[in-house]
Structure formats: C-alpha cells, structure tokens
Amino acid sequence: MIAIFGDVILDSYLFGKVKRISPEAPVPVLNVDKKKDVLGGAANVANNIISLKNRCFLFSKFGKDEKLYRLLDLLNEKNIFHYILDNYTSIEKQRVIASNQQLLRIDFEKITFLEDKDVEKIKEKFLNLENINLVIFSDYKKGFCTDTLVKEIISICKEKNIKVIVDTKEKNLEKYKGAFIITPNLNEISNMVGREVKNEEKDVVEAAKELIEKYNFENVLVTRSEKGMTLVKKDGTYKTFYVKPKEVYDVSGAGDTVVATLANFLSLGYDLEKACKLANIAASIVVGKLGTAPIYLEELEEYLNGNTKIYSLKDLLKKVKKWKEEGKTIVWTNGCFDILHAGHVTYLKEAKKLGDILIVGLNSDESVKRLKGKDRPINPVEDRAKVLEALECVDAIIIFDEDTPYNIIKEIKPDIIVKGGDYKEEEVVGREFAKRVVIMPYVEGKSTTNIIKKIRKNG
Asked: Which helix (H) or strand (E) segment is 361 a member of?
C-alpha cells in the first residue's frame, strides 16, 4: 500500500454555454448546464493510484464545512482510505467552463498550517498501518507538509527502508533531504536552483545534479512538457524519456498523474526506469482530458498494446463512462465505409466538430452483404476499420453484426447522432437515446457506389 501526505483540494467545475454579454457589465453570461466536483491536489494523486488498481492511504487536513462533505463523498466513492483532520480551513478551486474553454478560476483559499499536536496523531496512525512500501509527499504549499511532519515521516521511512517520492512547490528542500526521488517540472526546478533552467537536456541535467548534491536525493525526475521527462541519478547517469506527442487539452493534474504512476509501479516492484517510462506515457494521456482527471490502468494497457481505437462493446462502454465523467460530448455516427473517399473524410471531420469524441459504428461484412448485396463489401471489415482508425478525427470504432446499431446506441446514449443527408430525422435509428440528431449534407458527387461502378466500367 502507498501512503500519501499532502494538501487536498476540492476541484469543482461549472459547465455551460455563453450566448450573450451581460447588460450590467461587458462580461459573458454563462448558462450553467452542469456542476461537477472532482478530487484535487493530493486527493487527485490518490485517485490516480486507485484508478491504476492499487491501494493507498491519504493523510491531509480540511475544514469542517459543506466542502468537507463533498470531499468525503468523493473519497468514499473511490474507496480511498483516508485520515483527514477537519479542524483547519477548506480549499476549493472552482473553474468556469464554456464549450470546453476555461473562462475563469475562482479560488476559495485561506492557508492554515498543520499544528505539531496533530503531527503526533498522524504519526501514530501511520505507524499502525500495515504493508506500506512507499510514501508520497504531495506538497502544494497549503500548510500540511510542515517541517515537523515531513522530518518525522521521513525518519520513520528510513528506519523501515520505505522509498519516499516528493512532489513539491517549495523552493527550499531541506526538510526533504535524503528522499528517494523528487519530481519537479521545469518552472519548479528553476525556483529550486535559483536560476532559469532551459528546456534543454544539458541544462536540466546540470540543475538536477545541483539538487542531488545539495539535498542528497537518490534521483531527480524533471518533467519537461512536450520534451518528455529526464531522470538524473545520484551516480551522475541520466536518461530522457520521450513519448509520441499528443494534442494538449488541459494540463490540470498532469504532475499528480506522473507521481501516482511512478509510485504505483515502483510499489509493484518495477525498476525505476520502467516506472518513469510508464509515468511519461500516463502524463501524455491525461493532458488530452478536460479538467482534473486520473489515468486508468486500461488506458495504459491500451497504449502499450498499440493504442487501438477498435473496441468491444464492453470496453467501449468503460471508455464512454470515463469520457462522460470528464464532461466530454459524445458524437455517434455509423456506416459501411467500404471504400473511404473524400466525401467520407469530410463528413467525419464535420461530425467530430460537433463534440469532443467521435465514435463510429462499422457494419460487419455480413451486415454489409445484407444491406448492399452479395458482392459487397469490397474491403473486409478489418481493412475498413484500420483505414478509419488512421483518421485523427475518429476516436473509437465498434463493429456490429446487426442491420442497425440500435442496441449499441441504446447502451452508449451519445449526446449527438450524425447521419448523412439522405436521411430524415425521424428515420434515424436510436434517435430516442440521444440529446439531438444532426443531418449532415453529403459532399456532392462523392459516392462509394459511383466509384465501384466506374471501376467496373473501366475494368
């Protein structure tokens, strides 16, 4: 089990649309569609660990108010073991989101420091926990990770040979001396060494070596945004981990994901370099999500297995659930897509613009034969799926054997169903399970049937 010591934050979101400017002042008016609370700060680290199918125990402080009950509900829902001292003040960060664009962040924050008398309570609770093999300090500088607490816990960890991972925004790292690994980003390591550290391997390595020498760290892992992460060891060796670049949607909580993934795999016995590699992949996945969101073990497995977009219904429903929890708009369309042409590509790109996630239902070969005749499809379903998978606008593909995808749409309940221009809304299968239906005009002169006729005529 992993023990986490740090500042918990309640991250709340207001989602809506802006359609007018206020008559009272030149500011946009948000019509709120949905409110959502998620775990932030050290609680997000815990949430990531749980999502990776591991166990953890969270130590922190908070205020005794309505925010506390919202926080505790989330912790209990995720089965996160916790010891939260509630005689302090609560911290909430509320983000206002319009059409997936953050307009404003409102912080409810008054920092109070952990009292020494409470350190003893935490220490006693920690000593009574069994099977702790790794400790994380998630220090957001909100008053929980005091010098007294940190030194007490690190002293116990040294006695018990427990690895300590440090993620801190502090400039002075004296209290964290001797930690196994510290995980600053570029801005944080610049503050720690007192100079600007350029996002170049040589400069990053030099800065990391300064920290190792000054504070006796075993390792320093510097996160470098699009340039990956660089691990520098006490013996002077270093390695940079790269990952295929992905579109950055929201960096909220990415550092928490790095720490949690690193801790998760180290606690399972992975070597440090392998754990760093997996942490880097995990970070590249979560920056593609809206808001503070965890990494899931299934997402890592999917990436390592080739990052396929082709899903079974069971796996797709898991993904859809996560996407909806993240506040993403799900768009559905379906078809045979036998010979993919410019009309198809235009249609799919326009469909994707209507939301965040585009799911394509693909008729199986037998389904196509029943709909189009015994000479179809021209291309087998495996090839048709692979071609669709190569399109950036397509996020997920599911193959169905029935004549229509009614049962799949019933399970998924997409926000939007898109169909081509030869349909009328009342003819669209599964329309009752979606919030709306969009009929997309076909690109004139582009048709699979016409392409096949032309090939046969000239063949």
From this structure: strand 357-363
